[in-house]
Amino acid sequence: MKKLFLFILFLYAFNASLHANKISYEHAMELQQNEQFEQAIDCYENFLRQNPNHVSALFNLGHCYLALGKGQQAIDSLETITTLYPYALPALYNAAYTRKTIGMIDEAIALYKNIIAFDSSYDQAQLALGFAYLIKGDFENGWLQHEKYLKRSGKNGDLLRNLLNSNVATLHNKLIFLHPEGGLGDSLQFIRYAQRLHDMGATVVVRAQKPLLSLFSRLDYIDHLIGPEGTIPGYHAEATLMSLPAIFGDTESTFPTDIPYLYAQQELIDSWKIKLSHDMYYKVGICWQADKHNDKSRLPIARRGCPLLEFMPLNIENVSLYSLQKYDGVEELENLPTNFPLTHFYDLDENTGAFEDTAALMRNLDLIITVDTAIAHLAGALGCTVWLLLPYATDWRWIHNRTDSPWYPNMKIFKQETPFDWTSVIQNVRNELISISAST
């Protein structure tokens, strides 16, 4: 009877332990889902002390570490899995992705190649390898690798490639249909390829997002411009705007960089010149927040918004600051200290159309300082001097360890050296702004 009692007591304690472990693991997942990553890490680590080989917990722990920019800890967690299961491809993939994210590009490329050698059908690794080459600045290998993704997604532009591979004269009078992919910034960046195709003799039809129709309507290299729902009766070839660099196989030496390739309305430029004529200081436009919905899908270390209050050190003698912010981020103006003078025009673009006032205002400013959003591309395309502020983890188009951009010769890049550290970025901007404003 005593032995039976002890056995029942053991089962009770064992089941209680299992139940506690389950609660601990589920609580960690809930914390992770709510982006309480520090607390989730503590919870996962406590759970793993009792369950050191729990693959899901190790995997999730790695994600939490990476979300906070703790790359080596993320790699260690994922490599614990691959030590147990050497061919656990999701863990290998995420270890490679972590390396790419924290700037270990060559190591990431080698690991992606190992994954593909083991399983060439692992699409995530195929796609990521292409982007790893691109962020390294190896466009030749990057576009070649990226072509695999373009073919699978139906974006390879095979008919256009065939025309380009033939005698250039074959483009004459051919109707080429270009349509958007990605966000407004992507269209602003890659619409320059419409000019190349037009100059090669093609008739270029562009479908654009509604906010860009007015801005694009002044581009004489677009033969026909249609809205999001617009259709055309027939065309000889088509492509998405974002696929065009790959279709052309461009490298840094061949990117189309004829700046400007976008233009503000001259009447509005003149109007804004009058409005700002009283200001004899060095005039700087700032934009601090990207689309929050888009940013929410990114790792925290890759989110592009910089709190407006971080810009306070830019309150410099002989410098005037103007807000270029629209929509998300405008609410931060409500808590702006009185000792931070920032001019904001609440009716910007309201009566003229999307980006119209903004573009004309920018043409009357000496410098644009912006986070990675459509304003950065608009400034670059207009030929404005633009300083781009980047988070620790960035998009492929801003090449790793570069302070310039092959896409925009008028751009200078300031990037976080450690995750979430906007303070150091703004201090570097302040130092350069003091120097440049004093010399003008």
Computed CA radius of gyration, to the nearest angstrom? 26 Å
The description of the largest β-sheet is:
5 strands, parallel
Number-wise, the strands total 9
CATH superfamily of the largest domain: Glycogen Phosphorylase B
Distance between the termini: 95 Å
Q: Roughly what percent helix?
A: 40-55%
The geometry reads as globular
Alpha plus pi helix count: 18
Give the helices and strands as they follow along the chain: HHHHHHHHHEHHEHEEHHEHEHEHEEH
How many structurally independent domains? Answer: 3
Q: So, CATH architecture of the largest domain?
A: 3-Layer(aba) Sandwich
Beta percentage is 5-15%
Low-confidence stretches: 1-20
Strand order of the largest sheet: 6-5-7-8-9
CATH class type of the largest domain: Alpha Beta
Residue-averaged pLDDT = 93
- From the 3D structure, determine the CATH topology of the largest domain: Rossmann fold
Strand-pairing-aware structural class: alpha/beta
